[in-house]
Each structure stands twice: as structure tokens, then as C-alpha cells.
Amino acid sequence: MTEKPDGGVAPYSYLLVTMALFGAAFTSSKVVVGELPHDVAACLRFGGGALILVVLLCVRPGTARFSWRDLVKAGLVGLVGVFAYNFFFFWGLSLAPAIDGSIIVPVLSPVLTTVYFLATGKETASRARIFGLASGIVGAVVFFVGIGGGDAGFSGSRLAGDFVYLAGAACWAAYSIASKKVLSGMEPLRATTYATGVGALALVVVAVPSFAGTEWTSVSTLTWANLAFLAIGPTAVAYLFYYRGLRAVSPVTATITMFAVPVFGTVTSVVFLHESFTAGQVAGAVITVVGAVLAVTQGKISTTERKKVHR
């Protein structure tokens, strides 16, 4: 499939594949933290992903020359979007089901981003947006309260893990806000490589104390296979596909596609991990997703986006 200058189908295919990989990452990472400390798991995933991106950057013809200025700019953003986000991401997985994270992180990140733009006066607060934010907050409250209902396995650990996921969502929102300005004008592959590389190095530093206590000989082949998948798919490939899609569509459209992550994350968590939801969590998730869509899109898609969709 060839990407068309006017957008076409290809950009949406790239974004859909990206969201499928992001959703599967929750399930795959849950398998990994079952045998490895969460900081070691994060280090191995992004260390591997960074190496792959470095190779791609080196072999790609016509790339710009190395710049310390670009490295510092992208690296600072990477400390938030790669290091801090994934530290909380894997920590949350060690405490709570992957299915919880696949709802909390991709849905609340755009909501928190929208709240920031409204609070700073960079976006307008329409009725649809205010209603959407209020609905998203109510849905999040219902989701957390719903953890204790049914037979989905309520525990203090699960509740703590969900709040850790929330911290991860805040980090991803901060990363999205900062990267739009800091990484503007930088070639996508180079920006992704620098950010991922610096974030991975920070994860290595944090994980070093845990390496000695890790029982490497007991790590199963399944866990190593999942680590390879995480480094290649949800890290290297997904980020590159996301930027390819973002070149042809607006940030609004790209943000909307994030709401597909809970679908893929829930399906893979139920099928491969046999995790479950309470009725309260289902209700909270639905309310949160609907509210988030309204908050981000203000209840509509721009005329330009409608034309792209119907072409």
C-alpha cells in the first residue's frame, strides 16, 4: 500500500497498527514483569528498542548529521516520555492487571493534555469540551470504585497499581505537550532515536541495582520472546509508524486513534492472560472513553478532517 500525498488510507493503517501494538504491549509486558523486576523489564525493552532505532538511523541514507543540540532537546523529552512514563508503566504492571492500564493510560492521557491546554488558555473551553472533561472525570471515579465490585480480584495492590498507571498517563501527557514544541523541525526518526536512547540510558541506571538480584537462568523462553516483541513492535516499529501517520493527518485525528488502544489491550489481556473486568469498571471505562472523545474533539472533527476521511 502506497502512502498518498493527500493522506489516503495508508496513514490510518499506520496509526491503527500502532495502536494495536500499544494495546498488545500491556499484555506482553505483564508476562515479562511476572519473571523480571519492573525496572529491569523497562530497561531491556527500551534498551533493545533504542539499539534497533540507532541501527535504522545509521543505515538510513540522507539523514542529517549528528547534533548535540538536537540530542539534548530530544533527550530531555525522552526522560519524561520514555524514562518516567515506562518506569510507572512497568511498575503499574507489577501491581495491577494489564487490562486496567490499557484503559487508564491511553484514555486519560489525552484528557490530561486537554486540561493543560484549557488551564493555560491555549485552547477554548466549549460546552462540549467541559462536558467531556466532566464525564471523563466521573468515569475515572466510577472505574476506580468499580475495582472493588464483582469477582475481578480487588486488592490494595491493584488499586495502588491503577494509581501508578495514572502517574504514567500524566507523564505521557507531559511528553506529548513538550514534544510538540521541543521536537518540532527535527526529523522523526532522529528525534525518536535520541529520545528513546536517552530514556533507555536513564532506565539502565535505575535498573542496575536490580540486575544482580535477578535470576537470569530462570527466565523462560516465553519471557525472552515477549521482550524481543516489545523492543521491535511496540517500541521501534510502533513509534515510527505513528510518525508516518502523523505526517499526513492532524494531531486531532492521531489523538482520536488512541481510543482504539483499550480495545486491543482488553482483548489481548482477556485472551492471553485471562484477566477480567467488573461491571463497575466496564461502566466507568465507557463513560471515560465517551467523555475523553468529547473533550479532545469538542464533539466534532474539523472540516479538513471530514474531507480526508471521505476521500
UniProtKB/TrEMBL annotation:
Coiled coil: none annotated. The chain crosses the membrane at residues 12-33, 39-59, 71-93, 99-118, 130-147, 159-179, 191-212, 224-242, 254-273, 279-297. Residues 13-144, 160-296 form the EamA domain. This is DMT family transporter. Its main location: membrane. It is a multi-pass membrane protein. Belongs to the EamA transporter family. It is found in: Cell membrane.
